Amino acid sequence: MTTDISFAELADRYVAAWNETDAAARRAAIARLWVPEGEHYVRTLQVKGYEALEQRVTGSHEKNVRDGGFRFVAAGDAQFLHGAVMFHWHMVPAAGGPIAALGLEFLLLAEDGRIAVDYQFILPTPTA
Fold first, then answer.
1. CA–CA gap between residue 27 and residue 109 (Å, rounded)
2. Origin, by domain of life (predicted)?
3. At 70, which CATH number?
4. Distance CA 78, CA 65 (A)
5. How many angstroms separate the first and last alpha carbons of the chain?
6. Which helix (H) or strand (E) holds 29?
7. Chain segment 61-76, per-residue pLDDT in tens
8. Tell me, what's the pLDDT at 12?
């Protein structure tokens, strides 16, 4: 992963995992994105490893996508710096409409380009 395009693609694959409706496909996406002992931090929540990552992503999916009618999209601003990738994402109504939530991902990558540590920051939601 040495080009801006690959980091944009990583951001797109990342948000796609949170939107994925099929549990087996979501599990496979997690394995492609994170190393086996990958870590994810958001607010006071900390998870480590595929099982915990799957529970985290599935819980968010059920709350926000399945039940909430939203979808996650990468903002198109992925940047790479010395083994880390940063990008913003938006949670938007699937049927269209204003941004309902905004976040920033800061990912530390392993040697193979998968996520070793994922810091998720929930940012203030823009007002209309």
1. 19
2. Bacteria
3. 3.10.450.50
4. 23
5. 37
6. helix 23-33
7. 999 999 999 999 999 9
8. 97
Domain region containing 84: 3-123
Count the domains in the chain.
1
Distance (Å, rounded) from C-alpha 46 to C-alpha 108? 15
* Model pLDDT, residue 127: 73
Q: What is the mean pLDDT of the chain?
A: 94
Whole-angstrom CA distances from 86 to 30, 68, 77, 78 are 18, 26, 8, 6
Q: Which of 121, 106, 116 is nearest to 53 (CA)?
A: 116
Q: How far is Cα 64 from Cα 47, in angstroms, rounded to an integer?
A: 19
Entry pTM = 0.93
**Token pair in block for residue 117:** 């540590």
Whether the per-residue pLDDT at 128 is higher than 90: the answer is no
Assign 100 to helix, strand or coil: coil
User: Could you tell me if residue 109 is inside a domain?
Assistant: yes
Residue 9 domain-assigned?
A: yes
pLDDT, tens digit, 9 for 90 and up, residues 31-56: 999 999 999 999 999 999 999 999 99
